[in-house]
Amino acid sequence: MTREADGGHTAGGRPRVVLGVSGGIAAYKACELLRRLTESGHDVTVVPTDSALHFVGEATWSALSGNPVSTRVWDGVHEVPHVRIGQHADLVVVAPATADLLARAAHGLADDLLTNTLLTARCPVVFAPAMHTEMWEHPATQENVATLRRRGAVVIEPAVGRLTGVDTGKGRLPDPAEIYEVCRRVIARGPGARDLAGRHVVVSAGGTREPLDPVRYLGNRSSGKQGYALARTAVARGARVTLVAANTALADPAGADVVRVGTAAQLREAVLKAAGDADVVVMAAAVADFRPADYAAAKIKKKDGEEPPPLALVRNPDILAELSADRPRGGQLVVGFAAETDDVLAHGRAKLARKGCDLLVVNEVGEHMAFGREDNEAVVLGADGSQTPVPFGPKEALADTVWDLVAARLPAAAAAEPSGESTGTSAGKSTGRP
């Protein structure tokens, strides 16, 4: 395939992706990521390290990508591959990224083709780490991750799960489908997408359930899809994301620390704990306003000829109002959601004033509206009197609009480094926190 001399997309308009693969057991999962990238129309060049080839051979990478595989600086010297591959890319993604690879990238080493590519890339760079928990938690690794993020790279938080052998913990490579979603969003937003770099955001999602007896509960129709879209887009924009998920059946977004809860009380505890060092809290979950006053330890039986006893309810804590009134750090932004069935804007404005949050996303809901669907329509009301309509479209689009409004209101973070650092990405803001 003919490539343009000045970089960017291929002559056929396909985005160019470099898939770097380092030497970890999770290298085999990169084959699935490669398949998703190629099948969605990306032109992929695979750059495995020598160690990676011990796990997956060169022939596999070539067959799946449809392109020759570049492995060494000395291959095709006349084409200067150690410079050209990075220069012509729209995205570089390294999956898996081992502790060794992260260290070499953070320190600007160039001892193989992949690290040379990272040094010459001027496009967004995504690292998907995979290693044992002890290696991920080691101060050296955390310093390297902080350095890469400070320079503008997206370093995805590893997942929690089964590692090699009998070990379990944080360090598992996120699901390739979720890594692909991060890559897709990063490419779509381009080099200037790092406006949440160095920020910690907390997002709640799903719907709480308040138990009545061991088999019944009071709940709602929320699927969690809008909250998950907010979490995924925040990861792609460089944020460290804590997702508090209530009763969802969705796959964990790559790069988010997921805390699972059931009731409103559990959600409150998890959100308040995570909000302690958060720059932004987005309460997208549908939290039950009420819970049964009494919990029956055994299933409530139906009795012939008798009507059921009245169901007494008590109020749940107002988490959004509590967050807005008692912010644990200066400059923290709080975003709420209001699901309304009538007089949407009037109810939304009243709720915004009552809750005291900075932004309120107001949308109309119903049996076939918003809940469980892939699309949404809303108006984002600001405490400053602003009103931003978001037309009907994918929930991802609404999520990006929310983060646009949030980013414009965040206080300035630590000064960002100039673009063109060793990760090859545009610089982002950072507090230096890993």
Automatic annotation (TrEMBL):
* UniProt catalytic activity: N-[(R)-4-phosphopantothenoyl]-L-cysteine + H(+) = (R)-4'-phosphopantetheine + CO2; (R)-4'-phosphopantothenate + L-cysteine + CTP = N-[(R)-4-phosphopantothenoyl]-L-cysteine + CMP + diphosphate + H(+)
Keyword match Metal-binding: yes
Q: Where is this region: Disordered?
A: 413-434
Enumerate the UniProt keywords alphabetically.
Answer: Decarboxylase, Flavoprotein, FMN, Ligase, Lyase, Magnesium, Metal-binding, Multifunctional enzyme
UniProt lists compositionally biased (Polar residues) regions at 420-434
The terms under GO molecular function for this entry are: FMN binding; metal ion binding; phosphopantothenate--cysteine ligase activity; phosphopantothenoylcysteine decarboxylase activity
Quick one: which residues bind CTP?
A: D289, K299, P317, D318, I319, L320, F337, K351, K355
The organism's taxonomy opens as: Bacteria, Bacillati, Actinomycetota, Actinomycetes, Kitasatosporales
Q: What does this protein do?
A: Catalyzes two sequential steps in the biosynthesis of coenzyme A. In the first step cysteine is conjugated to 4'-phosphopantothenate to form 4-phosphopantothenoylcysteine. In the second step the latter compound is decarboxylated to form 4'-phosphopantotheine.
Keyword Lyase listed: yes
Q: Which InterPro entries match?
A: CoaB-like_sf (IPR035929), CoaBC (IPR005252), DNA/pantothenate-metab_flavo_C (IPR007085), Flavin_trans-like (IPR036551), Flavoprotein (IPR003382)
The UniProt annotation puts the region (Phosphopantothenate--cysteine ligase) at 201-434
Family stated for the protein in its record:
In the N-terminal section; belongs to the HFCD (homo-oligomeric flavin containing Cys decarboxylase) superfamily.
Q: In which pathway does it act?
A: Cofactor biosynthesis; coenzyme A biosynthesis; CoA from (R)-pantothenate: step 2/5; Cofactor biosynthesis; coenzyme A biosynthesis; CoA from (R)-pantothenate: step 3/5
| Ranges where the DNA/pantothenate metabolism flavoprotein C-terminal domain occurs | 196-408
Cofactors (names): Mg(2+); FMN
Flavoprotein domain residues: 16-181
Q: What is this protein called?
A: Coenzyme A biosynthesis bifunctional protein CoaBC
Gene Ontology terms: cellular component: phosphopantothenoylcysteine decarboxylase complex
Q: EC no.?
A: 4.1.1.36, 6.3.2.5
Name the GO terms of the biological process aspect.
coenzyme A biosynthetic process; pantothenate catabolic process
List every stretch annotated Phosphopantothenoylcysteine decarboxylase. Answer: 1-200
Cofactor info, note text: Binds 1 FMN per subunit.
Please give the NCBIfam families that the UniProt record associates with this protein. Answer: coaBC_dfp
* One Pfam family per UniProt: Flavoprotein
